[in-house]
Recover the amino acids of this structure.
């Protein structure tokens, strides 16, 4: 039977292009849509930032004082998502320095996740039995003010030179227990396509490697980087997982939609790792809207991170209860696919620890009492024989 395909209700049309600030009004689309141009025109100074947004005195002061610790860098595309007149714009909070950064609490740590301690070679953090973090560059298109790796990111002396890259690959090659490699940075998409392809092809040639992930924020900060030829290159190395970092619905532009579409069409599975940030996304409504948009972009919400104890991000930190409330507000009230895991990274290297609202109310013998998302109680009688379960941990001892 013939039918007419309905293109009137195209999901893509629900996503809006980023507005174009005055200073880039005359930029040719071939430049604006070119990631090299976006990368070259990154905003690194107050003079240029002043032309895009109404900078506050606080921001000016914070920029001057934070500059030596952690650069500012904002792509024109990401800057165009900023509300020029709202100092509390969630895009702005993530990209323009604030006075809070200068305040370092005694509880804050330079290496909050103990990534250096678990480093067998300079480019690898091997914490979990079967997977590693693999650092391939110190660069990112936008320097996120809440970054947990400030000590490394934007510092050229920590760059992964070719020698370090080879040592990391040799380590992965030698350790047959590794099956999953998280390619990270900085942002691994700051590498050239050729360098990335070299890394992927080396990893794919190792028989013990099953999957790898590219941990990248380019979908959010520089979606132009996801070119057709880059996506096509990835096709050769499947399964490829993309782990990205959307924090706010405003970041879900049509440009970002298209970047996700190119990756999803190329067969990549895309997951999102949101960081819970005060004033950006610390309320259930914002997270709900973000996660609904992500699903329409074929991105699966994977983690919500409690802000860790990195230095100079106390103005972003939220109470742990906030994360629990957000999960509780999602579970049952929307698609299970829109409910990520809320995790806290154990300070000093404990790894990710899941935090869940309490749904188990009590257990009396084989009678378990739970509550559901509407707070109604349900009793489950467990009639199965108690048995022992062999855990993976006991096997790995
Ligand atoms: C987050 C992380 C991973 C990956 O963890 P998953 O829970 O598998 O996503 C691996 N290694 C380190 C050091 C990490 O911090
Ligand atoms: S993209 Fe990631 S590594 Fe780079 S500055 Fe942002 S949070 Fe840090």
């Amino acid at each position: 039977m013939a039918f007419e395909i309905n293109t009137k209700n195209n999901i893509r049309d629900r996503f809006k292009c980023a507005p174009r600030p005055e200073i880039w009004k005359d930029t040719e689309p071939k430049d604006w849509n070119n990631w090299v141009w976006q990368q070259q025109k990154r905003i690194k100074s107050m003079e240029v930032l002043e032309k895009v947004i109404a900078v506050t005195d606080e921001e000016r002061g914070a920029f001057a004082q934070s500059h030596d610790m952690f650069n500012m860098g904002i792509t024109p595309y990401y800057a165009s998502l900023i509300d020029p007149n709202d100092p509390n714009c969630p895009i702005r909070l993530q990209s323009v320095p604030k006075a809070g950064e200068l305040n370092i609490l005694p509880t804050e740590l330079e290496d909050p996740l103990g990534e250096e301690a678990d480093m067998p070679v300079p480019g690898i953090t091997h914490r979990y039995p079967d997977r590693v973090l693999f650092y391939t560059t110190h660069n990112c298109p936008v320097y996120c003010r809440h970054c947990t790796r400030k000590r490394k990111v934007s510092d050229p002396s920590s760059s992964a030179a070719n020698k370090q890259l080879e040592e990391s690959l040799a380590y992965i090659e030698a350790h047959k227990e590794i099956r999953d490699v998280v390619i990270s940075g900085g942002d691994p998409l700051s590498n050239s396509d050729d360098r990335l392809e070299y890394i992927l092809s080396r990893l794919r040639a190792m028989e013990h490697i099953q999957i790898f992930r590219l941990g990248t924020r380019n979908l959010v900060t520089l979606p132009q980087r996801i070119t057709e030829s880059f996506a096509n290159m990835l096709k050769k190395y499947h399964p490829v997982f993309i782990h990205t970092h959307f924090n706010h619905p405003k970041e879900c532009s049509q440009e970002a939609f298209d970047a996700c579409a190119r990756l999803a069409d190329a067969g990549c599975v895309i997951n999102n790792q949101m960081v819970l940030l005060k004033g950006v996304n610390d309320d259930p409504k914002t997270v709900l809207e973000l996660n609904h948009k992500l699903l329409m972009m074929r991105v699966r919400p994977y983690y919500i991170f409690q802000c860790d104890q990195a230095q100079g991000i106390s103005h972003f930190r939220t109470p742990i209860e906030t994360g629990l409330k957000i999960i509780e507000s999602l579970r049952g009230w929307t698609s299970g696919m829109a409910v990520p895991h809320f995790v806290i990274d154990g300070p000093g290297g404990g790894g990710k620890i899941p935090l869940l609202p309490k749904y188990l109310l009590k257990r009396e013998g084989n009678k378990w009492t739970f509550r559901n998302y509407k707070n109604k109680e349900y009793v489950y009688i467990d009639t199965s024989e108690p048995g022992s379960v062999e855990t993976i941990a006991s096997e790995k001892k």
User: Anything to note?
Assistant: The two ends are 61 Å apart (CA to CA). The chain has 14 helices and twelve strands. Residues 125, 127-128, 131, 133, 182, 352 surround pyridoxal-5'-phosphate (ligand 1) (CB under 6 Å). Residues 360-396 form one domain.
